[in-house]
Amino acid sequence: MARKASGSGGKKTPPPQGFLRRNWPWLAAAAAGFGLLLTLVLFFGPWLPGIPATSRLPSPAESPRAAPSAPDIPAAPAPEVPQSGQPYEEDAAPGFEDELKRVDYALLLTLRQLGLGPERYSLSEVSHRHEDDLDYLVQSIFIQYGRGAEGFAEALGPHLRRWAPDASLSLFGDGLLHVALLGRETHTLRFAPPDGPAAAIQRPSGSGVLAIVIDDLGENVAFAEALARLPYPVTFAVWPQASHTRAVARIAQKHGRDVIIHQPMEPDNYPRITPGPGVVLTRMSDQEIVRMLEKNIALVPEAIGMNNHMGSRFTGSARGMRLVMSVLKAKGLFFLDSRTNARSAARGAAAEYGVPFVGRQVFLDNIAEENAIFHQLQKAENMALKHGSAVAIGHPHAATLAALRRFAEEAAPGLRMVPVAGLTRDLSRTGVAARQ
Q: CA-CA distance, 202 to 119, in Å (whole number)?
């Protein structure tokens, strides 16, 4: 009699007598194979493609701070080596600077949509503006486009509505298109016919120095190796208590790259977001803060400076930053303010203790997409050529590495890449540090 199919509701016919005895070697092999597969999934899942990696940092596409990729711009791949669960940056509501990056992204998408390559547009000027505790950059962009301001506004509008709904457009009779974010003018777009002289698109002129710092290092050894092989100096900001702090610091030292301590500091939304091990908090006593800083410095003996990881609350504390500067002064280290707080007390405390100080001008990869990051590099380049120097900070994204490699080929002739330590020394001599 035929056996009923499983799930038919009928009673299953038992296997023929002797079935287990005759087939036990094959059944045992199948069970062992299943056990091995289960072990691979449980223990090596984060390393296998297609299996969620619960122990690594989110990729740009997963990050709540990163703009999701548009269909015509694929997301950058996640780093090849799994990373820890420490967040790159504070998971707060997007600030004005983050929203400004989204305006830039909408502009880049529009240029891509209209088929306007880099030979048809240029970032002609960037200036820093400080208003109502906001620090942001105002940009002037020159574009060769046949339909002018009106046609470009028609294409840009939908991208702005998607990526930066708080932005607005204004057309002027002289062929200018202005972009404002929350009522603050952020971009001026100038247009010329596409058949105009090629000289209309000019490379930035002048000379200046640019220091690039990559934060959040210490988890991805492969990324550190690739970063160290760039043809210009990039400063390594290393977590003092990461999984591979020592290995990453040795890679930097072997390739002659400067190392600074990426010191975890308390963010505004602590404890919902924690900066990771080794953090200093405003509620700690003076002795606890000093002990933690000294411990972290001892873990990275190659370090010649320090910058803050997160720290929007701690860097706003005059007491906390005085304690930081007292330790750095004793150890002979400088301080780079990542400027996660527009009211940071770092500069005043550094001046009080005589600690070499410099502040960040540009974050490179709030949107982790190569073209967007390259645009940020051009901003930093423009500021360096206009003001003599600039500091840009990025993070260990694959897209950031790709943009840095491209920048090596396309940077302006008058730009010189320097370690951030050299920049702090230059600023100390010229007095520019007080204005950074």
A: 9
Phi and psi at residue 430, to the nearest 5°: -95, -10
Domain boundaries, the chain: 96-200, 208-435
**pLDDT tens digits, 26-44:** 545 554 544 444 343 333 3
The CATH number given to 96-200 is: 3.30.460
Which of 67-71, 173-177, 334-338 is the least confident region?
67-71
Q: What is the pLDDT of residue 25?
A: 53
Q: Which of 307, 217, 308, 297 is nearest to 267 (CA)?
A: 308
SS3 track for the chain: CCCCCCCCCCCCCCCCCCHHHHHHHHHHHHHHHHHHHHHHHHHHHHHCCCCCCCCCCCCCCCCCCCCCCCCCCCCCCCCCCCCCCCCCCCCCCCCHHHHHHHHHHHHHHHHHHCCCCHHHEEEEEEEEEEECCEEEEEEEEEEECCCHHHHHHHHHHHHHHHHCCCEEEEECCCCEEEEEECCEEEEEEEEECCCCCHHHCCCCCCCEEEEEEEEEECCCHHHHHHHHCCCCCCEEEECCCCCCHHHHHHHHHHCCCCEEEEEEECCCCCCCCCCCCCCECCCCCHHHHHHHHHHHHHHCCCCCEEEEEECCCHHHCHHHHHHHHHHHHHHCCEEEECCCCCCCCHHHHHHHHCCCEEECCEECCCCCCHHHHHHHHHHHHHHHHHHCEEEEEECCCHHHHHHHHHHHHHCCCCEEECCHHHHHHHHHHHCHHHHC
Q: How far is 276 from 280, CA to CA, in rounded Å?
A: 10
Average confidence (pLDDT) over 266-275: 89
Q: Which residues pair with residue 144 across a beta bridge?
A: 192
Band of pLDDT at residue 129, cut at 50, 70 and 90: confident
Whether residue 271 has a cis bond before it, omega within 30° of 0: yes
Range with the largest mean pLDDT of 79-83, 115-119, 122-126, 143-147: 143-147
Alpha carbon dihedral 168, 67, 340, 241, in 10-degree steps, equals: 180
Give the CATH fold of the 208-435 domain.
TIM Barrel (3.20.20)
If you search the block for the tokens 């940092």, which residue do you land on?
57
pTM score, two decimals? 0.73
246-255, 266-275, 343-352: segment of lowest average pLDDT: 266-275
* Confidence tier at 90 by pLDDT (50, 70, 90): low
* pLDDT for residue 23: 52
